[in-house]
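Hi support team,

I submitted a single chain yesterday and got back a structure, but I'm not sure I'm reading the token output correctly. Could someone confirm the output below corresponds to the sequence I sent? I've pasted both exactly as they appear in my results page.

Thanks,
R.
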Amino acid sequence: MTTTQSANTLLLVRPTNFGFNAQTATNNSFQTKTENADLQKQALKEFDKLVETLDAAKINLIIVEDEPQSQLPDSIFPNNWFSTHSDGSFCLYPMFAENRRLERKDSIITMLTNRFEIKNIFDFTHYENQNKFLEGTGSIVLDRINHIAYACLSPRTNEDVLDDFCTKLNFKKCCFRSVFNNKEIYHTNVMLSVADKYAIACTGSFVNNNELKNFTEKLLETNKEIIEISIEQMSRFAGNMLQISNNNGEKFLAMSSQAYKSLNAEQIRKIERYNNILHSDIKSIETAGGGSVRCMLAEIFFENKSNK
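Hi R., thanks for writing in. Yes, this is the structure output for that exact sequence:
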């Protein structure tokens, strides 16, 4: 298979019990508890509008309906428990919050196995027994073309698990520490997005100048233009973006409307030199869930069995 940076098939989980997760709030500074009694209803409205936006751009979508009896407030963020790779590898990840571990559904794995060519399954979930975590493409932002795994170390992003991932998937790591509101940033993908020819990064969140220098050099060595965002823009999820493709090979950068509105004209101009922008309003999901559009998109890089 050809290695690409952007997927043209995305899996999304339509929630049945979205809400504020107290178990994740201990180290997610982006979450805000809300008393909104219609939160699930509002989340569904936002979810469906995002799907409509992606569908209009001719992005291949797999929509999974969460189980009716589900008590999983964060099932809307599937990118944390699994990832797929163009060499046919499927990865399962150790999750910090106990209630999030229940998101790993055999039914979803079976569906993907039946539909796509999966060659290897790497299961890292045993690290939960050691209280070591790596939450998928939340914890690691992948440069899939150059095989670099960028990781902001935190209680949810453990370097030992990262080393294991890099060994098995043939990636090189680039680790660093970043903070927001005096706390370690819980997931790398809220402060960094890596596309094919550029990267959006909140370099002001770094706490170590040597780590920042190494990070910057890695991006420049791999011919990425660095588009800087501020701490304030990061707080509005301007780092939580994902480059995706449609069947025609057109590339887009997917983000929330809040993130889009936080960008200035020059940042938008730079992004649109490379691809169009897709955005949708998911403010209720962002506020209670502490994650944005990128977190809702699980990329599928597998070859469809029906193509053979």
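A quick pointer for reading it: The radius of gyration is 18 Å. Let us know if anything else looks off.

Best,
Support desk
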